[in-house]
Design goal:
Blueprint (H helix, E strand, L loop, with lengths): L7 E11 L5 H11 L3 E6 L5 E8 H13 L5 E10 L10 E3 L3
Parallel strand pairs: 2-5
Antiparallel strand pairs: 1-3, 1-4, 2-3
């Protein structure tokens, strides 16, 4: 990840709609990696998808736009965005997580 004195931010997204069983998590992982973000994406029991991502603001904004569009076959009804303080805690490549 580039570090030119730009502030790292962290967000959590909850995506609601037809977002499970349509390749949504892998779509998000691919987009996040191309934007050099760290974090994870996971299906939830309530049929939503949660994303936690950390990186530069412009990259996070681009991820939010992608999350709202989704992959072919998905239908996104809403994307809620909650900021966190940038912490540089998320390490390694962006990953798909699974509910235990």
């Amino acid at each position: 990840m580039t570090d030119l004195g730009e502030e790292i931010e962290r967000i959590r997204l909850r995506i609601v709609g037809r977002v499970q069983g349509v390749g949504y998590r892998h779509f998000i992982r691919s987009r996040a990696r191309s934007l050099e973000l760290r974090g994870w994406v996971r299906n939830e029991d309530d049929a939503s998808v949660v994303v936690e991502a950390e990186g530069l603001k412009a990259s996070l904004d681009a991820l939010v736009r992608s999350a709202a569009a989704g992959p072919r076959g998905a239908r996104v009804d809403s994307v809620s965005r909650e900021p966190f303080a940038g912490s540089r805690e998320l390490m390694g490549p962006f990953e798909v997580r699974y509910i235990d």
